[in-house]
Write a structure and sequence with these properties.
heterodimer, A: 7-stranded mixed sheet, 4-stranded antiparallel sheet, B: mainly beta, 11 strands, globular
Chain lengths: ~120, ~110
């Protein structure tokens, strides 16, 4: 259980185009999903927190207009990299936290997708 | 502020040997702690979690971790490493506002 599917796994596109990445919780409802960016040989950097039905919360230094996040349902969040440039090339990972009744929000681990390798030419 | 640190950036171990990865935390109260593993080019997989109770926690893939309050540690162990255990390992608190630690890269030599 607790499977998160991330699509696509790899995308190559030209500079200036927009790229959408989907993150789906397949067998549970996730009121909160997280988007991370990971550079080679480095740890994950939290970009934003996606809340179902409300605006995403972005971390300091992350451009809201550059990285559009939409969490339209309890099982789907999308990250759109707008007008992508080579410096946006990175590994993007989403995760979802399952909210279980009767448990605290911090009791639950995050379940991660397999990541999306984005390469901008 | 709550935080975790992984003192070892890179560990090399021979296949079949034991492995221990260190994780130190700084919390006022009893922490919730997780260990994740990331294989190259993939997302993170939860190995185990500690909330309270038994200080020795069993996880998947033959891993275990022991919570030691006196040492503020939550070290991950495996008695006999397999080549497939080569990966990046992250100790993490549950608070999503905290960035993950730097992680520990494990290399397994034949």
């Amino acid at each position: 259980g607790a499977v998160v599917s991330q699509h696509p796994s790899w995308v190559i596109c030209k500079s200036g185009t927009s790229v959408k990445i989907e993150c789906r919780s397949l067998d549970f409802q996730a009121t909160t999903m997280f988007w991370y960016r990971q550079f080679p040989k480095q740890s994950l950097m939290l970009m934003a927190t996606s809340n179902e039905g409300s605006k995403a919360t972005y971390e300091q230094g992350v451009e809201k207009d550059k990285f559009l996040i939409n969490h339209a349902s309890l099982t789907l969040s999308t990250l759109t990299v707008t007008s992508a440039h080579p410096e946006d090339s990175s590994f993007y990972i989403c995760s979802a936290r399952q909210l279980k009744a009767g448990t605290g929000r911090y009791n639950q681990p995050q379940h991660f997708g397999d990541g999306t390798r984005l390469s901008i030419l | 502020a709550q935080s975790v640190t992984q003192p070892d950036i890179h560990i090399t171990v021979s296949e079949g040997a034991s492995l221990e990865l260190r994780c130190n935390y700084s919390y006022g109260a009893t922490p919730y702690l997780f260990w994740y593993v990331q294989s190259p080019g993939q997302g993170l997989q939860l190995l185990l979690k500690y909330f309270s109770g038994d200080t020795l926690v069993q996880g998947i893939k033959g891993f275990e971790a022991e919570f030691k309050r006196s040492q503020s540690s939550f070290n991950l162990r495996k008695p006999s490493v397999h080549w497939s255990d080569a990966a990046e390992y992250f100790c993490a608190p549950p608070d999503y506002k905290l960035s993950f630690g730097a992680g520990t890269t494990v290399t397994v030599r034949a």
